[in-house]
Amino acid sequence: MAGMALEKSAADKDSSGFRNDGLGGEANLIEPTIRKEFADTAYWSANVTPDENGRATVTFNMPENLTAWKLKAWSMGEGTRVGEGEAAVVTAKDVLVRLQAPRFFVEKDEVIISANVHNYLEEAKSTRVVMVLEGGTLNGMDELTRTITIPAGGEQRVDWRVKATAEGSAVITVKALTDADSDAMQMTFPVYVHGMLKTESFTGVLRNDDGAGKFTINVPAERRPNETRFEIRYSPTLAGAMIDALPYLLDYPYGCTEQTLNRFVPAVITQKILQDLGVNLEEIQKKVTNLNAQEIGEADERAAQWKRFETNPVYNTDKMNEIVKVGLKRLTDMQLSDGGWGWFSGYGEHAYPHTTATVVHGLQVAEANGMVLVEGMLDRGIKWLKKYQDEQVRLLKKGEAKKPEHPYRTKANNLDALVYMILVDAGIKNQQMQDYLYRDRTELSVYSLAMFGLTLHKLEVQDRLDMVLKNIEQYYVEELENETAYLKIPVGYSWWYWHGNEVEANAYYLKLLSRVEPNGVRAPRLVKYLLNNRKHSTYWNSTRDTSLCIEALAEYLQASGEDQPDMDLEVLVDGQVKQQIHIDGKNLLTFDGTVVIEGEALTTGQHTVEFRKVGRGPLYWNAYLTNFTLEDPITATGLELKVRRSVYKLIPKKDAKTNVAGSSGQVVSQKVEEYDRIELQPGDEVVSGDLLEIELGIDSKNDYEYVILEDFKAAGTEPVDIRSGYIEGGNGAYAEFRDEKVAFFVRALQRGTSSMKYRLRAEIPGTFSALPTFSYAMYAPELKANSDEFKITIEERVRE
Predict the structure, then answer these.
(1) Within 13 Å, how many C-alpha atoms sit on residue 574's CB side?
(2) Is 800 domain-assigned?
(3) Residue 692 pLDDT more than 80?
(4) Are residues 323 and 422 in the same domain?
(5) How far is the C-alpha of 793 from the C-alpha of 110, rounded, in Å?
(6) Domain end position, chosen among 628, 647, 669
(7) How many Cα neighbours within 13 Å face the side chain of 311?
(8) Which of 675, 712, 752, 767 is most buried as measured by Cβ atoms within 10 A of its Cβ?
(9) Which of 770, 791, 765, 769 is nearest to 688 (CA)?
(10) pLDDT per residue over 450-491, tens digit each?
(11) Is there a contact between 716 and 766 (Cβ–Cβ < 8 Å)?
């Protein structure tokens, strides 16, 4: 440092760690008491009782900070008498040393540690400045004892370069020794390992006709072998995973017509599915197989997570049958005199076309699943819908005139598509309405297009069906990396309308695919997407969309044959058979679909995993390789979720101004703080005092809840904003600022790309590793991702 007189000593260190450099000998230097106890608040008491004279004495030990302290007291007397007092006290020494170091270290960091020495004596002093490193975690790269001369009333700084070499705690002591007064302070810092628990995710599928498939993993040499775990999960059906939702669907309370229906229909579907699978609710409660191969962890533990919500799943067959019986009676009672249904029933209620259509469709599903309905109940609802459709056709015909008279309509709409589908299912065909819907198909939502496609398939109108399928395909998005697909609703679409519900739109598209190409690649990818976007691992967002998803998954399960697998399977790792198993309908809920290799059993290097399948049915698989990696640098990974971290240097714009309104409404030019952003690359240099902006980019393939991002900062930086709280933008995340990281808690993470930002100030010189940003879901242990590591060098700013 400029102006600093440094004298290196050549003498040997004594047993205390100090060097005898000829300054009059050890006896002439005052040995200080090492200050270790530091605190921001010296004392606090909420109940101090004064004596009869109104005086109180408080005794406490002061922390060993050398600083100015404020003493404040508040008193309360009889009635409304209150008082307040304030005083100041300073704890100081004639020779004072202050340690300047980052809040933490990371292995392999090289850091400048400083001792700022103040001389408040009336004469200049030759001062021995010593740094002692304990804990075996930091190695000094410079001479640890220096001798400097500090003028009276002056101060000087001594710098040492150290390197973090091991994980643990670093105890740093700095001393400033003179023959008149001395000072020393000691602080303990965490030294974090240059590593992290990293999970790499893999996924794939063997189609019904595929006999074998393989993939490779790479186990790094730089790792902790005892923390290595490789887990393979497989299942012959993803749609079958919906069986976990059935007991929870039965819990929905009765309410309005739609809620009653959406408890009744799943109960009927549940009856049919369980009958087809040859199992009952009691067996589901005891099942040991998680049919969703994407989920890791014990099946009973994952089920226990669902119970954190206010649900009471039904595992009793008699109770399920009672729900079906009572639900049917309630729907019968709620039917209005004209045959339709309203929101509720009773005096003043009238039928609505959408409510009536929804109930009639539910009753059709119930009847198709073997439910015996009250005589005439369904027919009266169908007649109401037919009358409604006939009226809409009449209005559309009037709308074709050059100057139509009110009332009239010019276009078929989404409700027409719903009513038309239900009436065709009832055997009522209206060619004119079909023509209008086909003519106006580009005005329909993708939800309604899927329903219209179902109707055209039933009527075997192939040419029009092909065109509608092409219309739907423009919304179709595939994520081949994780074998999912979905219909992307246009941005800004009216999501609050029934036909703007994305979950339901995808459910109806799955129903359509189950009929036109049940064994194609699109339907199973859509199934996987729907499963990934369940709200609480078992059900979706509402009674309605959950009911439709269960209905669609049940149809796909039967159409694809996934409900009755019959296969012999071998799982091999590096050519060695790790598991042999036969899977069919009898052991679908009890087979062991997990292979785990841990610790030293998984050696360093590349490994090949192979599936060999003989028999009927597909095989869906996921694999998770978890290592505590010690690689340098640590690279990014992620499957369903990916995290990107960008670091920018902010350079203030000179004379940046903006126009604002003055006190009288006039235009006033006002200076503002604006910056140019320059993106930094790993290894780039900045200087102390530079302002940095960290931008975390998130790519999510699904909608998730309760996601956490932990961004580990470089040790030589400090956040600009230090108060935790909700941040603007950034998915409404709550930011919590900690010494070594900034944690973001995201309540609801939407599918797509989003970002969040915060700022740091470069402070301590050195070369630092910012460990990867780590993201994970609180209730889904398989959802993990991390960014690349980022290395940065901070140089000391040269004073002009």
Answers:
(1) 10
(2) no
(3) yes
(4) yes
(5) 9
(6) 628
(7) 23
(8) 712
(9) 765
(10) 999 999 999 999 999 999 999 999 999 999 898 999 999 876
(11) yes
Proportion of the chain above pLDDT 90, given as a percent = 64
- For residues 525 and 672, membership in a common domain is answered with no
Q: Give the CATH number of the domain where residue 500 resides.
A: 1.50.10.20
pLDDT digits (tens, 9 = 90+) for 288-319: 566 677 777 665 565 555 444 444 556 667 77
Would 323 be classed as within a structural domain?
yes
> pLDDT by residue (tens digit) across 377-395?
999 999 999 999 999 999 9
Residue 3: the pLDDT is 35
DSSP state of 467: H
Tokens 């939800």 identify what position?
Answer: 447
3-state secondary structure of 319: helix
Kindly state whether residue 330 falls inside one of the protein's structural domains.
yes
Both tokens of 550, joined, read 């269960």
Please tell me the distance from the alpha carbon of residue 581 to that of residue 588, in angstroms, as a whole number: 12
CA torsion, points 523, 526, 530, 533, in degrees to nearest 10? 170
257-277 vs 353-368: helix crossing angle, rounded to 10: 20
pLDDT in tens, 745-769: 999 898 899 999 999 999 999 999 9
* Same-domain pairing of 326 and 408: yes
Based on the domain organization, do 224 and 254 belong to the same domain?
Answer: no
Ordered alpha helix ranges (H), 175-298: 246-249, 257-277, 281-286
CATH assignment at residue 27: 2.60.40.10
Pairwise pLDDT comparison (511 vs 260), residue with the higher score: 511
List 105's β-bridge partners, or say none: 191
How many residues in total does the chain contain? 800
Name the residue among 567, 561, 622, 594 with its Cα closest to residue 783: 622
pLDDT at position 285, please?
63
- CATH number assigned to the domain comprising residue 642: 2.60.40.690
193 near 150, Cβ under 8 Å?
no
Cis geometry, peptide bond prior to residue 407 (ω within 30 degrees of 0): yes
Q: Is 198 helix (H, G, I), strand (E, B) or coil?
A: strand
DSSP conformation letters of 15-79 = TTS-B--SSS-GGGSPPPPEE----S-----S-----TTS------PPPS--SEEEEEEEEE-ST
Under 8 Å between Cβ of 109 and 715: yes
Query: Under DSSP, is residue 211 helix (H, G, I), strand (E, B) or coil?
Result: coil
Q: Beta-carbon neighbour count of residue 606 at 10 Å?
A: 9
In the predicted structure, residue 256 carries a pLDDT above the cut 80: no
Helix, coil or strand: residue 168:
strand
DSSP, res 574: T
pLDDT in tens, 520-551: 999 999 999 998 887 655 667 776 788 788 88
How far is Cα 742 from Cα 695, in angstroms, rounded to an integer?
A: 12
The total domain count for the chain is 4
Same-domain status, 365 and 326? yes
For residue 400, being part of any structural domain is answered with yes
Query: Do 179 and 209 share a structural domain?
Result: no
Burial 46-82 (b: 16+ CB within 10 A, else e): eeeeeeeeeeeeeeeeebeebeeeeeeeeeeeeeeee
Q: Which of 604, 628, 652 is the C-terminal boundary of a domain?
A: 628
Q: Can you tell me the distance from the alpha carbon of 533 to that of 484, in angstroms, rounded to the nearest whole number? A: 11
Scored b (16 or more CB within 10 A) or e, 461-477 reads eeebbeebbebbeebbe
Rounded distance, CA 17 to CA 30, Å? Answer: 15
pLDDT computed for residue 442 by the predictor:
94
Q: What is the CA radius of gyration of the chain?
A: 36
Note whether 273 and 207 are same-domain residues. no
pLDDT at 343 > cutoff 90: no
In terms of residue numbers, what domain contains 206?
Answer: 196-236+565-628
- Phi, psi angle pair for 787, to nearest 5°: -85, 180
Same domain, 407 and 466: yes
